[in-house]
Design brief:
Elements lengths: L17 H10 L6 H12 L3 E11 L2 E10 L8 E6 L6 H13 L9 E5 L4 H6 L21 H10 L6 E7 L4 H15 L13 E5 L5 H12 L12 E2 L2 E2 L5 E4 L1 H4 L10 E6 L9 H22 L1
Helix pairs in contact: 2-3, 3-9, 7-9
Length: about 300
């Protein structure tokens, strides 16, 4: 039986219209600064990397420039590794793990692979610690033609010319306790559907592409992260967040059918990370390092197979 959850906006059983979305947006409060916490770090990286402004997100009265960072010794004869973070702005370690990788790890790949890193795809949501953009749209269900999310459309335009050259794409995410307490109830309310309670896994896991899972690659990433933090066990029914576990710490989603970020390229090696920052067994520092470790593990495996 469905267990309804109270949500303070809308009428149960009826999808939101413009009025409800406006009410939801008015409730969203800036809680941190994209300029201070993200752009300041990107500015420091300019000494060693090329920084590309690939879009501008405007939600009046706010405007947010979007930046990607790439290695300065870019070579057209090398494949590309794409790293994306902050598709869901509230997933903090996705943003700061991507920046950490650039600060501490990127140099080791010089002359071996080109790096393109978009560390914070959804800055409005980053500041408000939310999953959706200002239009109550989930960018990570919007990576498709004629995307309704400006954040998703901007990234697709950035990577489009490189699509056939991208060897590995790792998209950095988190699963948090607020998924169950806020974001899933909000989703049910927005869509006029009953809320169905789920579970939150304690630990790191991966969502592979069910259309091209590359199991050895997924396990290489899991092995790299296991050196930093714990891997989520399966629930008693053999699932994680309701999806069957196909290997330790790995589930599968159909990326393109769902409009997920990790499906925007034809990269042979692609995955979506999920860190659990609310675990009593993990610190914010561990979560950031787990994301950086996943990027290293992904690129290292891809290079050994290339």
């Amino acid at each position: 039986m469905n267990n309804p959850a109270f949500y303070p906006i809308g009428t149960p059983g009826r999808a939101w219209g413009d009025a409800e979305k406006s009410e939801w947006r008015a409730r969203q409060v800036r809680q941190r600064s994209y300029a201070d916490e993200v752009l300041s770090v990107i500015e420091q990286l300019r000494a060693d990397f090329d920084v590309v402004e690939y879009g501008l997100i405007e939600y009046a009265p706010d405007a947010y420039p979007l930046f990607a960072v790439r290695n300065r010794d870019w070579r057209d004869d090398l494949p590309v590794a794409l790293v994306t973070g902050g598709v869901h702005g509230y997933e903090t370690s996705g943003v700061h793990g991507a920046l950490r990788f650039l600060q501490h790890d990127a140099e080791r790949y010089a002359g071996r692979i080109n790096l393109l890193v978009a560390p914070c795809i959804s800055p409005w949501a980053y500041e408000r610690i939310h999953r959706w953009n200002a239009d109550a749209i989930d960018p990570n269900r919007s990576f498709r033609e004629n995307s309704p999310a400006a954040e998703s459309a901007a990234l697709m335009a950035l990577v489009g010319p490189l699509r056939d050259r991208i060897l590995v794409h790792i998209d950095l995410h988190e699963t948090t306790d607020t998924d169950e307490s806020e974001f899933r109830p909000a989703l049910a309310a927005r869509d006029g559907k009953p809320f169905e309670p789920g579970t939150i896994p304690d630990g790191f896991y991966l969502c592979a592409d069910s259309e091209a899972p590359e199991p050895a690659f997924q396990q290489a990433v899991i092995a790299a992260v296991a050196q930093v933090t714990h891997i989520a066990p399966a629930d008693p029914d053999g699932t994680i967040i309701g999806s069957p576990v196909v290997a330790p710490g790995v589930i599968e989603y159909p990326y393109r059918a769902l409009g997920l970020c990790a499906g925007v390229t034809d990269a042979r090696y692609r995955t979506t990370t999920e860190v659990y920052p609310d675990s009593p067994r993990a610190t914010p520092e561990q979560c950031n390092e787990a994301q950086a470790a996943s990027v290293r593990g992904a690129i290292d495996h891809a290079l050994t197979q290339a």
